Amino acid sequence: MKPVRLPAAATLALPRWALFALGLLYILPGLIGRDPWKNDDAASFGIMWTMAHGTWQDWLWPNISGLSWPDEGPLAFWLGALGIKLTGWLLGDVLGARVGTVLAFLLGALSLWYATFNLGRRQDAQPLRLAFGGQPEPDDFGRTLADAALLIYLGCLGLLLHSHETTPEALQVSLTALLLYRTVRYVEKPSLRNAALSGLAVGLLTLTRGWLTPVCLMLSLFACTRFLAQPAIRAVRDLGATLAVGGAVVALWLLPAQLLEPYHQQPLNAWMGWNWLQLDWPSWASVKFFFRVGLWFFWPAWPFAAWAVWAWRRQRGVLHIVVPLAFVVVGLLLTLCHPQPEQGQLLVLLPPLAVMAAFGLLTVKRGAINAIDWFSVMALTMCAAVIWLFWIATLTGWPEKAARNALKLVPGFTPELGWIAFIVALAATLGWFVLVYWRISRQPAVLWRAVVLSSGGLILIWILLMTLFLPDFNYGKSYASVAQQIAAKLPPGTHCIESNIGAAQRASFAYYARLPFAGVETDRCDLLLLQDSTKLRDDREIVPQYRGKQWVLLWEGRRAADRDERFRLYRRAN
């Protein structure tokens, strides 16, 4: 027997304007007014900026002002560079690059919504018919589940920071949601067309962060076909179509790059080498990483998703559990088999977990839902109050201890009152109290009531951080001030700088100070910019010898918020 009994009153869909507003409130803060932050965010922006202001070779061989970066794939960087090309004159290069981030987020949100909607309106997902009628219609049931899945997705802690960065990870999670949607459509109606569209998603994923993840997810797609009454020869044909379309999409980059050899380089070997480095035998370190990070990274999706598997265990082969569970299993195996587990790999699990969590909500008891609501109200309201307290303390100096602790993180920073940021933060806080009052006073019976406070509260916290404390974060995580110091010390007529600095630093210095770093085809330079640590003693420092030439120190400095990192600028002695 199905574990769900639900009246039609519980399937009232969230108003479309409210869903759209939540999406904008989620994605826009953290993109507007934010500098490129160390590390991956600034490095990815550097590739996009180099492409937008470079030649065709930069589009085929990704690099950061001459520092080669052929590892992951160029698709996310192409989108950012196109955003700079099309909107940079109006929005600026930094915000123009983030147009692609907004589009990627919208693609992921829509794909997740429609994947859940199509699974929710299937006959095997419908709740039991009530004795006197009044059960929801399939489309209404699907819409309610889709709203709940999207709210859970927006409430996941792991998605929050990564979805606001100009990195391939932000595009990868959205394309995973797209592949999940195409998988749902294929298992609903197996056809050559749906297989080809699934191949398109596989190809785009491959161009984003390598072939390992999409190929494994594609195999899980066809593993789901065992629940379909489909001849084996037809499944093989559809698999071939998926591979053909996916390969054709990837060839749009690799074929011209191999034939034209940008900067006399062929990216295939470097790209394939990076892909193979993402796979190894499972290790105890990867297991510890998954459970240590996953507990908060997948919150609040994973408890509901686990409950969904348990609640629907007696219903064999239901696709609303089988399809997302197949994606979760593949993502888990890829994480455990990663030699150096990272949070970016965990993002693949978020869309399928959100889908399963929505179906888990169907069977959660009212008492548990009320407990989740009260926990969300208390915890998130307290977090918001703490943020307001520390912000007031930085401006007024009271409470003294709070002000001292906050300013200790950004030494040398002078807080100022930004009226626009203050008004936005105040409006968001008032909106939070209105939402809480609506939830407590009306006690709505709709399915998504259990997660609307969690998602709304997380959005509130993010808005407060990205308005009240955005200047502090920019000061502590940006290299703009150091870049300006270096630019002021450059001798007239400087045309080339050799350096050992990292990718994020190189991108920031090239953008903010227009430093002319040595290109992919290295030139002989008269200036040298070194990066090392202030902890190194004089007798252990990097000796300023480079290619057998003596160098003279011109400048030394660092970011005020970083006590370890140090930069030094040298000129050839001759």
Automatic annotation (TrEMBL):
Main location: membrane
Record-level Gene Ontology MF annotations: pentosyltransferase activity
Keywords from the named record: Cell membrane, Glycosyltransferase, Membrane, Transferase, Transmembrane, Transmembrane helix
Transmembrane portions of the chain: 6-28, 75-92, 98-120, 211-229, 241-260, 289-310, 317-334, 346-364, 376-398, 418-438, 450-470
Entry GO terms, CC: plasma membrane
InterPro entries in the record: LipidA_mod_glycosyltrf_83 (IPR050297)
One GO BP: lipopolysaccharide biosynthetic process
Membrane topology, as annotated: Multi-pass membrane protein
Compartment(s) of residence: Cell membrane
Name of the molecule in the record: Glycosyltransferase
